[in-house]
C-alpha cells in the first residue's frame, strides 16, 4: 500500500514539474507578450523549460564590495556601496546625459547614463543607500561607470552606505529612514551572479543580462520541487556527479565556486553523453538495418593495376589502410570509414585502388570532390594512373551539360561507366547508377551525417562509404563530427619528401622574398602567391590580387604569371590552372581557390599574403600545395609589421611544425570548435550549450566510453534502469533538428 502511494506521488510531482517546464514563457512573472516574442525570436526561448536550459555564459563575483578609492579604469566589474549626493543633467538632444555623483566615504565617482535618463531620474533618489555594479572606465581623467546596475542596498549594508554620506553634508541622512519597502533583489549580493547573453535588440528593449537574471530567479520561485533526474543513478554514482536538480540550480545561482564546478561538470558530461549515445545508438541501428555488399574478390583490375601500372611503391601506411578498407568491404557490413591523411600523403591513390576492388566485384564507384576544379583534377589523375586499362572514368559536375550530360546519365544507369567523378551533383536524386558499390567523399568535411545517409538510398544495398580528409581533425572533434565512422590514418608521407621550410616575413621584406623567388625560378621551379578572400563582404577583394599581379609581372619580366580567382568563369579558371600545371606559366597569383587538393609537384614556393587573415588549418592546406616533389620547398607567411598576440602565436605554430594533427589541436585551442571550418553544417552536436570540445576532451572521452558501455551492456534496451535514458534521448531528438535528421 505504501509503495503504491509513493509511486502515485512521484507521478503527480513529475507532472507538476512538467506543467511548469512546458508552460509558455509569456506567463512567467516579468515576461508578458512583448518580451516573450523577443525571447522566442532572439534566443529561441519559448517555454519555462527553455529558459531553464539557457545557461549563463559567465559569473560575476559579487561577494566583494569595493571602496571607491580602490578602483581604477583597468578593473573588471566592481561592486560599490554608497549614496548618490546629486544629479547633473548635461548636454542637449542626442548628447544629453545624466550624471549621478556617488560617494562611499572613501571618495566619489560619477555614474553616467546616456539612455533611459528619465527612468533613472525618477527611480533613484539622493541620500538613499544603493549598491552599484558596473565596469569602471576613465573619461577625461576621471573614473566613471556608465550604465551601472543599481539597486537599493540590503539591510545589513545600509549603515555602511549611510556613514559615507557624512562626507558631504552633515545630518542630511535623517531624511531617509523610511525605505523599509525596498527589498533587496534576490539576484544581488550573493557571491557569484549569472551573466546571460542577450541580443542587441533585447538590450535596447531593456532585456539585459540583469533582467534575464530576474526572470531566472522568478522561474526558480516556481520550481519549488526537485527537477526529475535525467541520468540513471548508476551512472551518476559511477562518476560522482551532482544530481540534475542541484546542477541546474547551481549553474544559474552557484552557492559556491566549488558547487559551480560540480554543476558544470555534471551538465557537460550529460550533454556530451547524450551526443555520444545518439551517435552510437544510430551506428547500432544502421548496422542492424543495413547489410553491406560483400566484396570478396580482389580481381583482375586491382591486380593488373597493382602489378602493371602502379608507378611507385605504396607506402606502408597506404598498404595498411587499404587492408583495413578491404576488410570492411568483404565483411558483409556496410563500410563507413574515415580516412585521415595529411596533405600529400597519397589518398587519391588509395581511393582509386579501393574503387578497383568495387569494380572487380561487379560494382560501380563514385568519387566526390568539393569543387569542380578538384573533380576535374581527380578525373585527370585517375585517367593518367589507369593508362590503357579497360576502366571507364567519367565526370559529372554542374558544367557537364546538354548532350554530354545525357550520355553520362544513360551510360551510368546502363553500367557502362565504372567510376563517376564529380561534385555534389552526383548525389542528386536523378542520378541513377546501375549498381553503386562504393562512394568516396574527398576533402569533404562539409558533408554531414544526414547528407551521407542520402547516399545509401542509391542502391538497394547501401554502398560502402569512405570519407577522406586532409584537414587533420583533433580527436575530440572527430569523435563528435565523425563519431559514427571507423577511422584509418595515413601517418606517413611518400619517401623522399623534404619537410617544407616555413618562414615569417613582414611586408617590408619584399626584396628578400623576391630573392628567394628568383633563386627558385632559376632552378626551374614554380611559385604560388595566395591572397585572402574577404568573406565578410561576401565578395572578393580583388584589388589586392590585381595589384599583386601587376607588381609581380613587373618584377619578374622574364617569367609568365597566371592569375586565378573565384569570380572567373570556370573554364577560364581551369585553363589558367592548366597552363600552370603544364609549366607554361611560372608564377600563379590567386585567391584561395587553390586551397584543397591542387597538385603541381614542380611548385616549390608558397607565398601567403596577409597570412594573419587565414586560419591555421587553411594555412596548412595552402602550404600543402608545395613540397610534393623531392626538392626543398618553402612557405613564406607574409604579414604586416604590427600583428596581435594571437596572430603571432598562430604564425609561430606554422613555423614550428608541419604536423597537421599538431596544427589542428593548436587551432582548436586557439579558436574553439565553433569557428573551425566546416563544423557549422556538420549536422551533429555543434549547438553544444555548455561543453567545449577544445577544453573538455577528457569529459568527452569518459562520456563516449559510458555511452558505449550502455549500448554494449543493454543492446536490447531491456534494462529498466536505462528507461530514463532512452526517454531523454527521444526528447532530445525531438527538440534538436539535426539529431532528428539522422535517426
Ligand atoms: P593527398 O593525400 O593530399 O590527396 P595526393 O593523393 O594528391 O595526396 O598525392 C600527392 C602526390 O603523391 C601525388 O603526386 C601522388 O601521385 C604521389 N604519391 C601518392 N602515393 C605515393 C607513393 N606511395 N609514392 C610516391 N608518390 C606517391
Ligand atoms: Mg587529395
Can you walk through the features of this model?
This protein is an alpha/beta fold. Among the domains are: 2-55 and 219-257, no CATH class; 63-190, OB fold (Dihydrolipoamide Acetyltransferase, E2P) (Beta Barrel); 501-657, P-loop containing nucleotide triphosphate hydrolases (Rossmann fold, 3-Layer(aba) Sandwich), CATH 3.40.50.300. It is 41% helix and 16% strand. It contains 26 helices and 22 strands. Strands 6-7-4-3-2-5-8 form a 7-stranded mixed β-sheet. Strands 12-13-11-14-15-10-16 form a 7-stranded parallel β-sheet, sandwiched between helices. α16 (449-455) links the parallel β14 (436-442) and β15 (464-469). α9 (244-252) crosses α10 (257-289), α10 (257-289) crosses α24 (697-713) and α22 (645-656) runs antiparallel to α23 (660-671). Bound molecules: adenosine-5'-diphosphate and magnesium ion (MG). Adenosine-5'-diphosphate binds at residues 312-315, 318, 341, 343-349, 470, 494, 599, 601, 628.
CATH fold-level label of the domain at 501-657: Rossmann fold
The helix fraction, in percent, is: 40-55%
Compute the number of strand runs.
22
- What overall form do the CA principal axes indicate? globular
Ligand set: adenosine-5'-diphosphate, magnesium ion
The structural class is alpha/beta
Radius of gyration: 32 Å
Which segments are poorly predicted (pLDDT under 50) over 5 or more consecutive residues? 1-10, 164-189, 674-686
Question: Ends: how far apart?
Answer: 42 Å
How many helices? Answer: 26
Task: Provide the spatial order of strands within the biggest beta sheet.
Answer: 6-7-4-3-2-5-8
Oligomer: single chain
Mean pLDDT: 84
What would CATH call the homologous superfamily of the domain at 501-657? P-loop containing nucleotide triphosphate hydrolases
The CATH C-level class name of the domain at 501-657? Alpha Beta
Amino acid at each position: 500500500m505504501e509503495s503504491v502511494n509513493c509511486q502515485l506521488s512521484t507521478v503527480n510531482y513529475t507532472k507538476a514539474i512538467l506543467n511548469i517546464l512546458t508552460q509558455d514563457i509569456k506567463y512567467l512573472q516579468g515576461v508578458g507578450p512583448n518580451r516573450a516574442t523577443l525571447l522566442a525570436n532572439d534566443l529561441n526561448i519559448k517555454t519555462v523549460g527553455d529558459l531553464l536550459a539557457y545557461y549563463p555564459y559567465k559569473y560575476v563575483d559579487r561577494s566583494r564590495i569595493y571602496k571607491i578609492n580602490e578602483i581604477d579604469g583597468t578593473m573588471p566589474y566592481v561592486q560599490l556601496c554608497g549614496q548618490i549626493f546629486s544629479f547633473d543633467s548635461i548636454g542637449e538632444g542626442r548628447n544629453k546625459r545624466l550624471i549621478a555623483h556617488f560617494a562611499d566615504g572613501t571618495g566619489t565617482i560619477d555614474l553616467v547614463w546616456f539612455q533611459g535618463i528619465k527612468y533613472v531620474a525618477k527611480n533613484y533618489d539622493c541620500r538613499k543607500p544603493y549598491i552599484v555594479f558596473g565596469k569602471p572606465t576613465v573619461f577625461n581623467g576621471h573614473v566613471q561607470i556608465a550604465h551601472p546596475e543599481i539597486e537599493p542596498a540590503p539591510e545589513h549594508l545600509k549603515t555602511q552606505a549611510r556613514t559615507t554620506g557624512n562626507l558631504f553634508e552633515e545630518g542630511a541622512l535623517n531624511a531617509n529612514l523610511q525605505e523599509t519597502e525596498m527589498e533587496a533583489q534576490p539576484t544581488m549580493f550573493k557571491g557569484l551572479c549569472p551573466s546571460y547573453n542577450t541580443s542587441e535588440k533585447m538590450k535596447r528593449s531593456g532585456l539585459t543580462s540583469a533582467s534575464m537574471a530576474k526572470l531566472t530567479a522568478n522561474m526558480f520561485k516556481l520550481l519549488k520541487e526537485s527537477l526529475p533526474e535525467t541520468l540513471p543513478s548508476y551512472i551518476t554514482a559511477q562518476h560522482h556527479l551532482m544530481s540534475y536538480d542541484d546542477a541546474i540550480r547551481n549553474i544559474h545561482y552557484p552557492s559556491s565556486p566549488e558547487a559551480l564546478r560540480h554543476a558544470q561538470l555534471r551538465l557537460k558530461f550529460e550533454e556530451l553523453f547524450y551526443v555520444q549515445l545518439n551517435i552510437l545508438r544510430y551506428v547500432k541501428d544502421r548496422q542492424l538495418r543495413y547489410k553491406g555488399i560483400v566484396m570478396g574478390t580482389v580481381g583482375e583490375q586491382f591486380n593488373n593495376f597493382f602489378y602493371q601500372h602502379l608507378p611507385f611503391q605504396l607506402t606502408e601506411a597506404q598498404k595498411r589502410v587499404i587492408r583495413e578498407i578491404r576488410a570492411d568491404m568483404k565483411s558483409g557490413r556496410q563500410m563507413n570509414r574515415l580516412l585521415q591523411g595529411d596533405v600529400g600523403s597519397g589518398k587519391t591513390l588509395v581511393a582509386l585502388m579501393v574503387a578497383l576492388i568495387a569494380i572487380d566485384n561487379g560494382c560501380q564507384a563514385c568519387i566526390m570532390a568539393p569543387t569542380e576544379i578538384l573533380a576535374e583534377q581527380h578525373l585527370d589523375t585517375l585517367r593518367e594512373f589507369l593508362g590503357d586499362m579497360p576502366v571507364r572514368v567519367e565526370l559529372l559536375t554542374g558544367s557537364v551539360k546538354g548532350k554530354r550530360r545525357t550520355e553520362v546519365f544513360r551510360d551510368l544507369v546502363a553500367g557502362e561507366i565504372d567510376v563517376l567523378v564529380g561534385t555534389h551533383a552526383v548525389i542528386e536524386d536523378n542520378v541513377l547508377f546501375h549498381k553503386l558499390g562504393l562512394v568516396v567523399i574527398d576533402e569533404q568535411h562539409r558533408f554531414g551525417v544526414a547528407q551521407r545517409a542520402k547516399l545509401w538510398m542509391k542502391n538497394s544495398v547501401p554502398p560502402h562509404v569512405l570519407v577522406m580528409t586532409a584537414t587533420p581533425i583533433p580527436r575530440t572533434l572527430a569523435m563528435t563530427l565523425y563519431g559514427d565512422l571507423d577511422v584509418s590514418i595515413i601517418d606517413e608521407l611518400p619517401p623522399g619528401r623534404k619537410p617544407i621550410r616555413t618562414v615569417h616575413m613582414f611586408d617590408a621584406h619584399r626584396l628578400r622574398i623576391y630573392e628567394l623567388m628568383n633563386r627558385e625560378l632559376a632552378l626551374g621551379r614554380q611559385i604560388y602567391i595566395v591572397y585572402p578572400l574577404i568573406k565578410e563582404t561576401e565578395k572578393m577583394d580583388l584589388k589586392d590580387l590585381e595589384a599583386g599581379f601587376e607588381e609581380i609581372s613587373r618584377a619578374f619580366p622574364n617569367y609568365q604569371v597566371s592569375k586565378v580567382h573565384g569570380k572567373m568563369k570556370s573554364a577560364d579558371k581551369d585553363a589558367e590552372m592548366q597552363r600552370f600545371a603544364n609549366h607554361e606559366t611560372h608564377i600563379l597569383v590567386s585567391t584561395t581557390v587553390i586551397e584543397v587538393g591542387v597538385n603541381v609537384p614542380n611548385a616549390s614556393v608558397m607565398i601567403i599574403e596577409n597570412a594573419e587573415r587565414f586560419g591555421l588549418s587553411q594555412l596548412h592546406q595552402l602550404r600543402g600545395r608545395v613540397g610534393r616533389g623531392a626538392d626543398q620547398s618553402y612557405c613564406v607567411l607574409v604579414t604586416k609589421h604590427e600583428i596581435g598576440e594571437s596572430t603571432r602565436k598562430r604564425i609561430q605554430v606554422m613555423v614550428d611544425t608541419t604536423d597537421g594533427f599538431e596544427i589542428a589541436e593548436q587551432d582548436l585551442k586557439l579558436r574553439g570548435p565553433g569557428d573551425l571550418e566546416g563544423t557549422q553544417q556538420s549536422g551533429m552536436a555543434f549547438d553544444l550549450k555548455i561543453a567545449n570540445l577544445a577544453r573538455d576532451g577528457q569529459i568527452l572521452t569518459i562520456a563516449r566510453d559510458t555511452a558505449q558501455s550502455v549500448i554494449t551492456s543493454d543492446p536490447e534496451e531491456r534494462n529498466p534502469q536505462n528507461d530514463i535514458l532512452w526517454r531523454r534521448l527521444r526528447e532530445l531528438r525531438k527538440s534538436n533538428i539535426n539529431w532528428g535528421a539522422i535517426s
